[in-house]
Amino acid sequence: MGRISANSSVREPAVAGAFYPGSAADLRAAVAALLEHASAEMGSAPPAKALIVPHAGYVYSGPVAAAAYARLASRRSEISKVVVIGPSHRAYFHGIALPAADAFATPLGEIRIDAAARAKLAARGDVLVSDRPHQLEHCIEVQLPFLQVVLDEFTLIPLLAGMASPEYVASVLTDVWGGPETLVLASSDLSHYHPYGSAQQLDARTAAAIIARETHLSGEQACGAVAINGLMARARQLGLAVDEIARLNSGDTSGDRSRVVGYGAFAVHDA
Questions:
Q1: How far apart are the first and last CA of the chain?
Q2: Using an 8 Å Cβ cutoff, are 34 and 58 in contact?
Q3: Strand 155-161 and strand 96-98: pairing?
Q4: CA distance 18 to 16
Q5: pLDDT digits (tens, 9 = 90+) for 196-235
Q6: Cβ pair 55, 191 in contact under 8 A
Q7: Does residue 72 form part of some domain?
Q8: Is residue 4 domain-resident?
Q9: pLDDT single digits (tens) 61-78
Q10: What is the CATH number of the domain that holds 126?
Q11: d(Cα 213, Cα 248) in Å, to the nearest integer?
């Protein structure tokens, strides 16, 4: 990923060195190792139009995220546009927020914002264009290094969801849905801070609801429920199917099972 022009604005990484390695070499090696392990366990699967992926630190959710991203290997040169929608953890607002910045950066380089898609969404009049909600938000940023490793050149449409109905989110996604060149990602973890066994049961029920394309998940089930609900509404409109790819929690990856966070990866594809 190259540099954009000097007079363009760039959203710099907020969680490099915390959620994932801060140096380019270490980050690339970490992502490659996660993908290599995931690829070794991957079976045949239909091409995914959309993925649900977790967004915690790589030491916690990296294996689950990699299981989803490994499925994109055969589409490396096909995907040229990526829509990422996730929850706003730090800013409260209604609707969906786009950044005003021209690019998002990680230690692996800069990813250009898709200007045409941003203009189309901004013209709706019900999508906020502001850098403020995006400035410190991690849910989109942690997806980018995986995308930079598994894909060739692509543009980005980063969407933060505040308070919003499934129908509204689905309508925004419809405007940028595109064809095979466009990948849609919903960024979300699952349950938070339950004992290991309770979390497994809660997350199993949430996974079943996602596979059934339910559109009324709560924030207790998934912190990115607004994004997932909108994606599921869109999947229902198009008759798409949902499969589970992987599911773990932080007790599986970090060892502490007293208060865990759940992570799941799911694929949305033609039925």
A1: 34
A2: yes
A3: antiparallel
A4: 5
A5: 999 999 999 999 999 999 999 999 999 999 999 999 999 9
A6: no
A7: yes
A8: no
A9: 999 999 999 999 999 999
A10: 3.40.830.10
A11: 20
